[in-house]
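Figure 2 data, in text form.
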Amino acid sequence: HYTLLMMFPLLFTVYLMHRHEFSYSFVIRCGSWRQLLSRQIKTNMISSFFYAAFFVGFIFLADRKIPFYNWNIQGSYYFSQNHFILSLPAAEVVCYLFLICGVRNFIIEGILLFSLWNHSFLQGIGCICGISCFEIAQQKYKIFYRLISFDYTLWANQNERLELLLAVFFYIFIGYLLFRSCINKKEIIKIE
């Protein structure tokens, strides 16, 4: 639900921040296509974690009467799903929530930025919506949202945490390869 809630702010943020940055005069001011991409990735990272902090802050403000998590008592939903309690410091849970939200935002903004680099922003939106619809419609395959999640099983099963870490590295590596190919194409045709 988090990604569906944040999809539109992320779409507008990426589009408004980067739509005019592909002009030759802007690239010349940046120095090169690589420096432009580095600048864009930094601004995406800042906005991704800004939205994550906003979301986590909003949860705390909205849930003042209800504890943030109650996994350490037997009447909790966590206990009913996993049949044991889990005592974690609240700071650890909050930090993890913040990181997961930030990483998700960063990957979504990366997909949108890649689509801008290829002059196909609508295809980037279609890709994100397609992944969302696919994962909502079926429960078996984890592509993105269920792979990088804040699910109860993650805290109970160490293999889930390893799977999540590998997924994040995989998506970052794929993003690196895709953007590297974009930069190489721009440099080959002597735009730089």
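Caption note: The two ends are 41 Å apart (CA to CA).
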